[in-house]
Specification:
four-stranded parallel β-sheet; 8 strands; Rossmann fold
Length: about 290
C-alpha cells in the first residue's frame, strides 16, 4: 500500500490550506517513465516554476489508487496515468470524479488506435516496455560477451557462458556465437588445436553447456582453401593439407568424447540451421531445470 507517514500527511494538509500548490500525479502500473516524460515535456511549455510532478509507480491495487486520489485531492492537482488494466482505470476515474480532479489517460487512446488499425486486441499486460528494454540490454551484453570470448581469447568467460562452442578452425564457431548472442544467449567459443591444450575449464563444465562442432574433412579443406585465397596466401600451406585436417578432426573428436558434450555435424549446414539445433538442445535442458 502507498501510505504517507503522519508527518508527511500533516505537511500536505498545511500546504493545501495555504496555497493549494499545483501537483501533477503520475500513476503507473509499471515504472511510469512514459507518462512522466510526456508531463515534463508539456510543463516545459509554461513559465511556471512551482508546479511539482510526483510519480507513483507499480500501482496494481484498487485500494492503493483510492489512497493516492484522496491525497491528490488536497492539492490543485492533475492525474496523468498509464494503467493498462481496465479495472484499475475505472477505479481511478471514478475516485477522481468524486473529488473533481481532472485525469489524463496517456496510454489507452494510442492502444485503441493501434488496435483499430491492425485489427488485433492488446495484451493488457503491465510492464511490457520495461521487459523489452531488459531483453535489448541482455542482447547487447551477449554480443559484447561473444566478441570478448571469441576464439578462446578470455578463458575466464567460459564459466560465465550459457554455452561454450568447441571445434577446429573454420567450423563457423564465431558466426554461431554471434547468432546465439542475438537470441540473448551468452556464448563463448574455443578452438581445438592439437598443439595447444584446451582450457581446463571446459572439462569442468556440465556436458550440456558445451556444444561440439564436427565437419567432413573434404568440405573443411575447401573452406580453408577459400580462406587462404581471401587472405592472399599460398594454397599449399599445411593448414589445408588433408593430413593436417584429419589430425585436427581426430584430436577434436577425442576432446568432445572426453567432455561428453553434444556434437553437431555442420557439414553443408548454414549457420541458422546449426543455431536452430543448438537452441533446441539448449532450451530442452532449460525445461529440464538443468
Amino acid at each position: 500500500m502507498w501510505n504517507l507517514e503522519k508527518e508527511a500527511k500533516e505537511e500536505l494538509i498545511i500546504s493545501a490550506e495555504n496555497d493549494l500548490k499545483p501537483v501533477i500525479y503520475i500513476i503507473s502500473d509499471s515504472v511510469g517513465d512514459t507518462a512522466e516524460l510526456v508531463a515534463r515535456a508539456a510543463v516545459s511549455q509554461f513559465n511556471y516554476d512551482t508546479l511539482e510532478i510526483r510519480r507513483v509507480p507499480y500501482v496494481n491495487d484498487p485500494n492503493e489508487i483510492t489512497e493516492i486520489v484522496e491525497e491528490a485531492g488536497t492539492f490543485n492537482s492533475l492525474i496523468a496515468y498509464t494503467l493498462v488494466l481496465p479495472e484499475l482505470r475505472e477505479v481511478l476515474v471514478r475516485e477522481a470524479v468524486k473529488r473533481g480532479i481532472p485525469t489524463l489517460d496517456i496510454m489507452t487512446p494510442m492502444i485503441d488506435a493501434i488496435s483499430a488499425v491492425i485489427h488485433c486486441q492488446p495484451k493488457l499486460e503491465p510492464g511490457l516496455v520495461r521487459k523489452m528494454d531488459e531483453e535489448y540490454f541482455r542482447k547487447v551484453e551477449a554480443i559484447e560477451f561473444a566478441v570478448k570470448c571469441d576464439d578462446g581469447k578470455d578463458a575466464r568467460g567460459i564459466t560465465r557462458a550459457d554455452l561454450v562452442v568447441i571445434g577446429v578452425s573454420r567450423t563457423s564457431k564465431t558466426p554461431l556465437c554471434m547468432y546465439l548472442a542475438h537470441k540473448r544467449i551468452m556464448a563463448a567459443n574455443v578452438p581445438l588445436v592439437p598443439e595447444v591444450s584446451p582450457p581446463e575449464e571446459i572439462f569442468q563444465l556440465p556436458a550440456h553447456k558445451l556444444i561440439g562442432l564436427r565437419i567432413h574433412p573434404q568440405q573443411l579443406n575447401e573452406i580453408r582453401r577459400e580462406r587462404l585465397k581471401t587472405l592472399g596466401l599460398a594454397s599449399n600451406a599445411d593448414y589445408v593439407s588433408m593430413e593436417r585436417i584429419h589430425k585436427e578432426l581426430e584430436y577434436a573428436e577425442d576432446i568432445m568424447k572426453r567432455t561428453g558434450c553434444p556434437v553437431i555435424d555442420v557439414t553443408n549446414k548454414a549457420v541458422e540451421e546449426t543455431a536452430s539445433r543448438v537452441l533446441e538442445i539448449y532450451f530442452r535442458q532449460e525445461k529440464r531445470g538443468r
